[in-house]
């Protein structure tokens, strides 16, 4: 954000301009953007930590409903970060135990829903809905895990409760950079300011 970069015209026209992610580097736009960067303060440091695919990842993870499978226990379970790490890995998310924050009371008596926090890039904490389910001891055609809709659920934290900079970052549509690079080798480039 705030960098002046050269990009192909097709990338500018088809993606950056339409998504309002960049503008021409006129003196007025540069002054306006520098004011916006100053008002963001600490949030700029957070946005700098987020990588190229962070927007798509955050949008996808916000709607996650994670099934956590444990063997039946008459005394209940003490949930650990390792349990959540394995459950996340089963749905294709590789997270370190440092990025997982357990619920306030990790000793769970009955199977059911709970909420934990997953921190992305040590910058953005997201509340994730999870359901603890008992793994059946005998094979069944359909289990409780099969009935859980894992992706595309409403987020636990509404947009209004997110930090404004993170909310803007998450709600801006992602750019398909691979599609924009399919241009002829003789492309003209112009200067633009990235938002």
State the main characteristics.
Ribosomal Protein L9, domain 2; single chain; alpha+beta; 195 residues; ribonucleoprotein; 8 helices; 2 domains
Chart the SSEs and their pairings:
Layout: E1 4-8, H1 9-16, E2 22-23, H2 27-40, H3 42-49, H4 54-62, E3 65-70, E4 77-78, H5 81-90, E5 100-101, E6 107-108, E7 112-120, E8 124-134, H6 144-147, H7 164-171, H8 177-180, E9 189-194
Parallel strand pairs: 3-8
Antiparallel strand pairs: 1-9, 2-9, 4-6, 5-7, 7-8
Please give a structural write-up:
InterPro entries: Ribosomal_bL9_N (IPR020070), Ribosomal_bL9_N_sf (IPR036935). Keywords: Ribonucleoprotein, Ribosomal protein. Helices cover 33% and strands 23% of the residues. The chain is an alpha+beta fold and 195 residues long. A four-stranded mixed beta sheet has the order 3-8-7-5. The longest helix is centred in the N-terminal third of the chain and has 14 residues, at 27-40.
CATH class of the largest domain: Alpha Beta
**Low-confidence regions:** none
- What proportion of the residues is helical, as a percent range? 25-40%
Architecture (CATH level 2) name of the largest domain? Roll
Return Rg in Å. 22 Å
Number of spatially distinct domains: 2
Judged by helices, strands and strand pairing, the structural class is alpha+beta
Distance between the termini: 5 Å
Protein name: 39S ribosomal protein L9, mitochondrial
Family: Belongs to the bacterial ribosomal protein bL9 family.
Domain Ribosomal protein L9: 2-32
Keywords: Ribonucleoprotein, Ribosomal protein
């Amino acid at each position: 954000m705030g960098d002046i970069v050269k990009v192909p015209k097709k990338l500018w026209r088809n993606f950056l301009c339409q998504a309002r992610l960049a503008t021409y580097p006129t003196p007025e736009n540069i002054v306006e953007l520098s004011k916006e960067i100053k008002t963001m303060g600490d949030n700029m440091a957070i946005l700098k930590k987020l990588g190229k695919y962070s927007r798509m990842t955050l949008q996808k993870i916000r709607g996650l409903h994670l099934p956590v499978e444990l063997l039946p226990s008459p005394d209940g379970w003490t949930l650990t970060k390792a349990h959540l790490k394995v459950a996340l890995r089963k749905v294709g998310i590789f997270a370190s135990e440092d990025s997982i924050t357990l619920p306030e009371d990790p000793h769970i008596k009955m199977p059911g829903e709970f909420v934990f926090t997953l921190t992305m890039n040590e910058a953005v904490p997201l509340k994730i809905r999870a359901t603890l389910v008992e793994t059946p001891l005998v094979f069944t055609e359909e289990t409780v895990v099969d009935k859980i809709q894992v992706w595309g659920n409403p987020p636990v934290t509404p947009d209004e409760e997110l930090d404004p900079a993170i909310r803007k970052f998450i709600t801006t549509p992602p750019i398909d950079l691979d599609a924009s690079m399919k241009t002829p080798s003789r492309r003209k480039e112009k200067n633009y300011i990235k938002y």
